[in-house]
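Hi support team,

I've been running sequence recovery on a batch of backbones for a student project. Most finish fine, but this one hangs at about 90% for roughly twenty minutes before it completes. I'm not sure whether the input is malformed or the queue is just slow. I've pasted the structure tokens below so you can try to reproduce it. Let me know if you need the job ID as well.

Thanks,
M.K.
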């Protein structure tokens, strides 16, 4: 028996007065990733024009189309009026506020470069969003194509079993063993998917859905899911073409994040550590501590990063080395990031040109398996009559 789920008292919750809680789940509304570029761009423009932070936030809240962000900004303004700093107010009230944003804004407030930091974050999130959408769009079609082919070949044979049996019974023959096994597998997939669909519909019921969301929101479960995500990311690196595109994507994120932090005046070692974390790439995260330790021991950032074998000589290391020698490392890193962003689009197109033939071979292999396991025994049996 499922016990009644305890909901927070929304009417008495202080955050509910500002519209921050979802009326069904009682959880804070998350900010859409696509909202960050426009938010930072508008806020930075208004602050640089002399508008106070509170008035700028109020105007952005009125014009923003993301209900999660717009409603949370009211709470941010409330905290600022109580004397809380802008970065801390964001951290307190935005449930998915990135750590990188908080650290960069905190540093900018301390040195009086808030408008510059807001523009930097707008550029960073715009590039990051564009690259993320390109990657998702490129992967969606081939994966959907392969999935549909697999489902079709797994579900269809079961519905032809009766015809096969009746045809062979007319000549007093039994169904060949390979055909029988393939049809059993197909029936299993039919029942499995029907069961999965029924369970999915049940899980959509509000009480059960809320329990599931609460379960996945636990820190232990979220940590395990991140490990599984890292494993998938790691193994996807070995796919021809796609591995190189993912490496360029991670390198571009690292380069832009490092350049923005250094241009804003943040020390080198913490900037490198934050840039590694922003990539979310397990290959980059594995070498984070070693690189930071090498830099702290007096090694140049170029040699420390070159020893990892993760960075391209032309697109990154040459810019970094020239920046260290000329003292314009931040500027050259941002130029390198723009170059890598264009290179990512080209690399992604090349990856798709390799991935599509591979998927066609996979689909062709599935079709060949079906033909040999179903039709070849039937043809041999017919010829033997």
């Amino acid at each position: 028996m499922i016990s009644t789920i305890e909901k927070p008292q929304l009417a008495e919750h202080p955050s509910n007065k500002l519209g921050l809680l979802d009326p069904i789940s009682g959880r804070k509304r998350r900010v859409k990733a696509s909202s960050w570029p426009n938010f930072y761009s508008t806020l930075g423009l208004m602050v640089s024009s002399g508008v106070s932070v509170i008035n700028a936030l109020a105007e952005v809240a009125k014009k923003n189309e993301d209900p999660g962000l717009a409603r949370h900004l009211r709470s941010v303004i409330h905290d600022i009026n109580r004397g809380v700093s802008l970065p801390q107010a964001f951290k307190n009230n935005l449930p998915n506020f990135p750590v990188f944003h908080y650290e960069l804004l905190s540093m900018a407030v301390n040195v009086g470069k808030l408008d510059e930091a807001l523009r930097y974050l707008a550029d960073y999130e715009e590039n990051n969003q564009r690259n993320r959408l390109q990657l998702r769009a490129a992967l969606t079609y081939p994966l959907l194509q392969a999935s549909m082919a697999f489902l079709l070949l797994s579900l269809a044979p079961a519905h032809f079993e009766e015809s096969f049996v009746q045809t062979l019974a007319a000549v007093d023959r039994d169904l060949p063993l390979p055909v029988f096994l393939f049809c059993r597998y197909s029936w299993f997939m039919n029942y499995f998917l029907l069961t999965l669909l029924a369970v999915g519909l049940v899980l959509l019921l509000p009480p059960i859905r809320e329990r599931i969301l609460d379960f996945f929101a636990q820190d232990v479960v979220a940590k395990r899911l991140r490990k599984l995500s890292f494993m998938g990311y790691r193994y996807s690196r070995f796919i021809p073409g796609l591995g190189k595109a993912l490496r360029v994507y991670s390198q571009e994120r690292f380069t832009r994040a490092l350049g923005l932090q250094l241009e804003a005046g943040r020390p080198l070692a913490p900037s490198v550590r934050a840039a590694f974390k922003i990539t979310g790439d397990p290959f980059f995260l594995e070498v984070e501590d070693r690189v930071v330790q090498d830099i702290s021991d007096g090694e140049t950032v170029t040699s420390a990063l070159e020893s990892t074998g993760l960075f391209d000589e032309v697109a990154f290391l040459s810019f970094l080395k020239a920046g260290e020698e000329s003292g314009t490392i931040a500027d050259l890193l941002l130029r390198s990031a723009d170059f890598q962003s264009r290179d990512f689009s080209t690399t992604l197109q090349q990856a798709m040109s390799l991935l599509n033939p591979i998927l066609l071979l996979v689909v062709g292999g599935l079709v060949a398996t079906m033909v040999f396991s179903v039709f070849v025994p039937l043809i041999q049996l017919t010829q033997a009559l």
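--
Follow-up from support: It reproduced on our side and the slowdown came from queue contention, not your input. DSSP finds 17 helices and no strands in the chain. No action needed from you.
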